[in-house]
Description:
Low-confidence stretches: none
CATH architecture: 2-Layer Sandwich
CATH superfamily: STAS domain
Helix content: 40-55%
Amino acid sequence: MRSKWITYKDTRIFYQDFSGQDLLNSEIIKKELEEVQAVVLNEPPASMLVLSDFRETQVGKDLIDLMVVSSRLTKSHIKKTAVVGITGTKRFVANMLVGLTGQQLTLFDTVEQAKEWLVQ
Length: 120
């Protein structure tokens, strides 16, 4: 699993690392999402700060379906979600994900900006 816990300013953040991945290969993403879900579901409701990194990725339809299912399953455990690397078509996908699941995503240009927002 590439995703991991990081600490920023004495605050624990779960860093979902999808950067540089071939997100068109749904099997790779499915495995990562299953492992991430296990971590998230093990945390108390409304407690997690999440940083999702989609820099240098491409998005396919399979990913959208997987992300919707994952988001619906885990959103009750998430306090705040910051996302980096969402530009172009990925912005449309992010907006669709919010619409379909109700999970709020706040988009940032850099990882540092995202971490700062999460710890506020």
